[in-house]
Design a protein that fits this description.
The complex is a heterodimer of chains A (502) and B (243).
Chain A: H1 2-8, E1 11-17, H2 20-35, E2 39-46, H3 49-58, E3 63-67, H4 68-75, H5 87-99, E4 103-105, E5 115-120, H6 121-127, H7 132-141, E6 146-149, H8 151-155, H9 160-167, E7 173-176, H10 179-187, E8 193-197, H11 202-205, E9 208-210, E10 223-228, H12 231-234, H13 236-243, H14 251-262, H15 267-277, H16 297-303, H17 305-339, H18 341-356, H19 359-370, H20 374-398, H21 402-411, H22 415-445, H23 458-467, H24 470-498
Parallel strand pairs in A: 1-2, 6-7, 6-8
Antiparallel strand pairs in A: 3-10, 4-10, 5-8, 5-9
Helix pairs in contact in A: 2-13, 2-15, 3-19, 4-5, 17-18, 17-20, 17-22, 18-20, 19-20, 20-22, 21-22, 22-24, 23-24
Chain B: E1 8-17, E2 20-30, E3 35-39, H1 46-53, E4 61-66, E5 69-70, H2 76-81, E6 83-86, H3 98-102, H4 104-108, H5 113-126, H6 132-136, H7 144-156, E7 162-166, H8 174-189, E8 194-199, H9 202-208, E9 211-216, E10 219-224, H10 226-231, H11 236-242
Parallel strand pairs in B: 3-8, 3-9, 6-7, 7-8
Antiparallel strand pairs in B: 1-2, 1-4, 4-5, 9-10
Classes of the chains: A alpha/beta (502), B alpha/beta (243).
């Protein structure tokens, strides 16, 4: 709700995807804007390109960093030209395609976050591997290289399998592995080949060599601000601030900045130091990001106190908002299912099926209609909270002894009196147990709200996963778990008070 | 109501339930103050017959009159509140106290609290539960016999002139059953209400009833005083019952 109001005021909404580099670039955008007096609201860690783009189209975001290859293939869903295509052309096609949708592909930042296959330099030297064609040759010679790849690289149509076809080889082993795990495994020598981003600082720190894509299989991934076209007229200063970043970040710079974040420096600090270094903001204070030092846990918690309070408040808003509506709607549907045989199957089936939709797709699905932020989160949480409440209400009502109802009617009770005095009081403890289950799961599910910028305790969890920072994960996860326990205890107490004494 | 009008009058009633004929032309008149037992095997239609009187079942054909008035002429709740009703499983509301359960119909009739309280105390004493502490208990703290006594108190609280008893002792073990019957015989015979008792127990019927109606497969095969039935059993089933 605060989101809708804020759009009316002159605020620029800056987004980022839930990837460390995207976080950092979002922060750089935000600070560059703020340096020119623009009011900024940050929506970082959105659950992927589609969510961010839908939010942009819906007007809930004004700008976020995107890559031209992704924009072309994933957002515009246009095919790549045959391999050998000059990288410049992708950017042009994206600019054209986006313009038709009221979106502006602003001048690129100066680096391309390309996909590379990398392997330890020692192995590359030993086997004489420089390019992907060399790799194909080595595999044909019988050199066995175990690979660990991101799930995305294994699944995408233009991922590993297409690459193998293009170069004519087949790896003996290709396992899906998450980010931190993958690099740990290659450092320990358990795997020899990983997919990586050309801007990843770990290529240097782990002594990995990226193989040259000599047949130009991978598209380029030039990075640029993807912004709403109307931003230029709405807030020319904002657009100018974003354009001023053009060409300022080359591959080496991006790799260095990513390395600083990876080593534990905060996005805020790295962005500030970068911007003052290139003269886009006036330097304030001494740079600390060059030698990042991790604060102790207590310093960290103390520093995050206010932030944690805000997160907790938002988390409660999300949980109670969804739970309140779900309780009333769930009770009503449970009663309906119990009273009307026709509604029974329909209600129970529909609610049951809604429950099976996985969380992230559901959220992504809601973004075009409800934008990003609190609303899609509450709607999704509401849908998940419904099933346990409907089922428990229905079960509670169905379990009421029909003989008891028969006799009550025989004494001269009306249907309404039977419902008020017998059905509801007897079903209440069962229905209440459904509300309890819903409450506890909603507290947990509400952490997913962070994927669509809904905030809450999921925000540090997501950021922690993205930035590989345990303290951030715990900052969200521990209060969320405690909240779930407290909620369960409070509702258990309430259920005891509400239950009819028998 | 003249003395000639029966308190309950069933005229050629038929009841179809789900395509099955449960009652196939039953006629029966119960005079004010008269006690009639309906006896029959399971599935004979005896409970259905009773449930037509307070309109828990509607008749497919024929008519049911209570105090001379067709049961369909009044709202079903009004009719039911004017008829005492006791069933085999006491049907006491588990989260209500014994006293509130006994006063259910008085509450439905919006009687003032003080009047309800006094009447409930009186009627609980009538059914043999004079203990004030007992009145505050929940039904599950009662024995089976005590629960049936409360159920009877609930039916008698309004001093109804029509009383329907559907196997009131049916859920009890044979010994408590005989004891309860013996202890309540005076109460049941002394209400002055036109009483219909459904039972499958001939001894019970003979001990309590002025007349006994034997029902088989949805029709009354014999109706008479216990002495008449003993002297002249009409069917093999009645003879079997008497053995």
């Amino acid at each position: 709700m605060s989101l809708v109001l804020a759009i009316a005021l002159a605020t620029v909404h800056v987004g980022s995807k839930n990837v460390a580099e995207s976080h950092l670039l979002g922060e750089i955008f935000a600070q560059a804007l703020e340096a020119r007096g623009v009011r900024v609201e940050r929506h970082f860690g959105l659950g992927g390109s589609l969510v961010a783009f839908q939010a942009l189209e819906a007007g809930a975001l004004d700008v976020y960093p995107e890559y031209d290859g992704t924009a072309l293939l994933v957002l515009l869903k246009e095919p790549l030209d045959p391999p050998g295509n000059a990288p410049r052309r992708i950017g042009e096609r994206v600019a054209e395609g986006m313009a038709a949708r009221g979106i502006a592909w602003l001048p690129p930042l100066g680096f391309s976050d390309d996909w590379v296959l990398a392997l330890p330099s020692a192995i590359a030297g030993r086997e004489g591997l420089v390019s992907l064609s060399d790799l194909a040759g080595a595999v044909a010679r019988g050199v066995s290289l175990a690979g660990g790849f991101s799930a995305e690289f294994l699944d995408r149509e233009d991922g590993l399998h297409a690459l193998e076809r293009a170069y004519g080889f087949r790896l003996s082993e290709a396992r899906p592995m998450g980010e931190p795990l993958k690099y740990a495994a290659v450092a320990e020598g358990k795997i020899a080949l990983v997919d990586a981003s050309s801007t990843d600082a770990r290529l240097e720190s782990l002594h990995l060599t990226g193989l040259v894509d000599d047949q130009h299989f991978f598209p380029s991934y030039q990075c640029a601000p993807l912004a709403r076209a109307d931003l230029a007229t709405r807030d020319p200063a904002a657009e100018a601030a974003l354009i001023s970043l053009a060409g300022r970040i080359d591959l080496a710079t991006m790799r260095r900045l990513n390395g600083l974040v990876l080593a534990g420096a905060s996005d805020t600090q790295v962005a500030r130091d970068f911007l003052s270094g290139v003269g886009l903001v006036t330097a304030a204070g001494v740079s600390t990001s060059e030698k990042p030092i991790r604060a102790t846990l207590w310093e960290f918690l103390d520093e995050k106190r206010g932030y944690l309070g805000r997160l907790l408040l938002r988390h409660l808003e999300l949980t109670f908002g969804a739970l309140f509506v779900a309780t009333w709607v769930g009770l009503a549907l449970g009663v309906l299912a119990n009273r009307r045989p026709l509604a029974e199957t329909l209600v129970l089936k529909t609610v049951g099926i809604a429950q099976t939709i996985p969380g992230l797709p559901l959220l992504a699905f809601l973004v075009p209609w409800l934008g990003i932020g609190v609303w899609p989160s509450i709607v999704a949480l509401f849908i998940y909270a419904l099933l346990p409440i409907v089922q428990a209400t229905y079960a509670g009502l169905t379990s009421v002894d029909p003989d008891l109802v028969w006799v009550a009617i025989g004494q001269g009770m009306t249907e309404r009196q039977v419902t008020r005095w017998i059905r509801f009081p007897l079903a209440a403890p069962v229905a209440m147990s459904g509300v309890r289950v819903a409450a506890v799961t909603t507290v947990g599910n509400a952490t997913l709200a962070a994927f669509v910028g809904g905030g809450g305790l999921g925000e540090p969890i997501l950021a922690g996963l993205t930035l590989n920072d345990d303290r951030l994960i715990l900052l969200g996860a521990v209060p969320a778990a405690m909240l779930a326990l407290a909620m369960d205890a409070a509702l258990a107490w309430l259920a005891k008070r509400l239950a009819p004494q028998r | 109501m003249g003395t000639g009008t029966p308190a309950v009058e069933l005229s050629d009633i038929h009841v179809d339930l789900g395509g099955r004929e449960i009652l196939r032309g039953v006629s029966l008149a119960v005079a004010q103050g008269e006690f009639v037992a309906i006896i029959g095997g399971s599935g004979s239609g005896k409970t259905t017959l009773l449930s037509c009187v307070n309109r828990l079942y509607g008749v497919t054909r024929g008519s049911v009159r209570v105090r001379g008035q067709d049961v369909n002429a009044v709202a079903p709740e009004t009719l039911r509140r004017s008829i005492g009703y006791v069933v085999q499983k006491s049907g006491l509301i588990p989260h209500w106290s014994v006293a509130r359960n006994a006063g259910t119909v008085l509450e439905l009739l919006d009687k003032p609290a003080a009047e309800r309280l006094a009447r409930v105390r009186e009627v609980l004493e009538t059914v043999g539960l004079p203990d004030a502490e007992m009145a505050t208990r929940r039904p599950r703290a009662l024995s089976g016999g005590q629960a049936q006594r409360v159920s009877l108190a609930r039916a008698l609280a309004t001093r109804p002139d029509v009383l329907l008893l559907d196997e009131p002792f049916g859920a009890l073990d044979p010994i408590s059953r005989r004891e309860l019957r013996a202890s309540l015989r005076g109460v049941l015979r002394g209400t002055g209400a036109a009483t219909l008792l459904v039972t499958h127990d001939l001894a019970e019927a003979f001990e309590l009833a002025d007349r006994v109606a034997v029902i088989e497969r949805g029709v009354i095969v014999q109706l008479g005083s216990p002495a008449e039935l003993k002297a002249n059993p009409a069917t093999a089933f009645v003879r079997e019952l008497l053995r």
